[in-house]
Amino acid sequence: MTAQSKREIRQVEDVLLVIDVQNDFMPGGALAVARADEVIPLTNRLACRFTHVVLTQDWHPRSHISFAANHAGRKPFEFMTLPYGEQVLWPVHCVQDTPGAAFHRDLDIPHARAVIRKGHHEHVDSYSAFVEADHTTPTGLTGYLRDTGVKRVWCCGLATDFCVAWSSLDARAAGFEVAVIEDATRAIDLNGSLEAAWREMTAAGVKRVRAADLLG
Ligand code: VGL
Ligand code: ZN
């Protein structure tokens, strides 16, 4: 990568959005994402380059609607139609204030300015850091980013095809420039969901970049 094509990070306009780097998404966790732990060193290096970093944290009540265990006869990874749309039923994960919901201990971003917790409403999931799955209820992140002068959102974390995809699409819809740092993400890839997510993100104008584009 030449200096010319390296992407410059703008200290006021840019934010790094680090999505759901939590124990339950790690290998061995309740909703393990393959090789999810590999993103951590790269995420730490990326975060050092940004003055503005925001973390998200999946943060469900134990009674959450997205858990298969809360629907009689249902199993994890089945689909279910809910009032707000199709919902994947997940294993119990990221229950509020449990070790599984904690950030991975090696995530080292002491200068992170905000943590957005999402999925805390019992009856609505929220893959997106911006708007819950009812497509209506805001988390407040759009207003926070606008108020702090952000124009561009750089996304990394877990999982590429769920929370990263939905967050980046909603960030675009809110009018931000958006890029996903692909090698700082890992996917669940359920029935082709990864390819579908990239198709949607690309169509929406989300840029697909690599960490080296920023780190040089
Ligand atoms: C996520 C499924 C359920 C994610 C969160 O972080 O991508 N996926 N909850
Ligand atoms: Zn979740």
From TrEMBL:
<comment type="similarity">
    <text>Belongs to the isochorismatase family.</text>
</comment>
<dbReference type="Pfam" id="PF00857">
    <property type="entry name" value="Isochorismatase"/>
</dbReference>
<dbReference type="InterPro" id="IPR000868">
    <property type="entry name" value="Isochorismatase-like_dom"/>
</dbReference>
<dbReference type="GO" id="GO:0008936">
    <property type="term" value="F:nicotinamidase activity"/>
</dbReference>
<keyword id="KW-0479">Metal-binding</keyword>
<dbReference type="GO" id="GO:0046872">
    <property type="term" value="F:metal ion binding"/>
</dbReference>
<dbReference type="GO" id="GO:0019363">
    <property type="term" value="P:pyridine nucleotide biosynthetic process"/>
</dbReference>
<protein>
    <recommendedName>
        <fullName>Nicotinamidase</fullName>
        <ecNumber>3.5.1.19</ecNumber>
    </recommendedName>
</protein>
<keyword id="KW-0662">Pyridine nucleotide biosynthesis</keyword>
<dbReference type="InterPro" id="IPR036380">
    <property type="entry name" value="Isochorismatase-like_sf"/>
</dbReference>
<feature type="domain" description="Isochorismatase-like">
    <location>
        <begin position="15"/>
        <end position="208"/>
    </location>
</feature>
<comment type="pathway">
    <text>Cofactor biosynthesis; nicotinate biosynthesis; nicotinate from nicotinamide: step 1/1.</text>
</comment>
<dbReference type="InterPro" id="IPR052347">
    <property type="entry name" value="Isochorismatase_Nicotinamidase"/>
</dbReference>
<keyword id="KW-0378">Hydrolase</keyword>
